[in-house]
Design a protein that fits this description.
Blueprint: H1 2-20, H2 23-27, E1 32-38, E2 41-51, H3 58-70, H4 75-88, H5 91-96, H6 99-121, E3 131-139
Antiparallel strand pairs: 1-2, 2-3
Helix pairs in contact: 3-6, 4-6
């Protein structure tokens, strides 16, 4: 009877590892990964596309995948994302956000917005969201 307990223990350890490891294991390999600089620090960002509704159209997924792959973070796009991010934060959030965090969030948002814009142009507005763009980043 020790074998079932061992299997249960091994299963719990595996489940805990998945929960603690974040998006990479929960979502699978990233659909896009970038290396970028934020406030002088080297950073890495990853994005995942995920269906929010069962039966998401193949077209919507193809539009999102192409937009994610082709998204370029130009100075203009980064400035627009920075402005939007700045407007979205209250005084407390602004005061507690480091420069590297703010610049990293803006970079990640610049890519995400391009995916959402492409979906909107293809007839999939964000108000009727069929796909989500998840992202995470870290800097060292």
């Amino acid at each position: 009877m020790k074998t079932p307990r061992l299997l249960v223990a091994a299963g719990l350890v595996c489940a805990a590892a998945v929960v603690l490891s974040g998006c990479a294991l929960a979502q699978g390999p990233a659909d896009r990964t970038d290396e970028f600089t934020a406030a002088g620090q080297s950073c890495s960002g990853s994005w995942w596309l995920g269906d929010l509704k069962e039966g998401t159209s193949t077209e919507a997924r193809e539009v999102a995948e192409a937009a994610l792959a082709e998204a370029e973070v130009t100075d203009v796009k980064l400035e627009a994302a920075t402005s939007l991010l700045d407007l979205s934060k209250n005084d407390s959030e602004s005061a507690s956000t480091t420069e590297v965090d703010f610049e990293s969030e803006a970079y990640m948002l610049a890519v995400t917005l391009q995916v959402k814009d492409a979906l909107e142009e293809a007839g999939y507005p964000d108000s009727d969201r069929v796909l989500e763009v998840w992202s995470e980043w870290n800097c060292s």
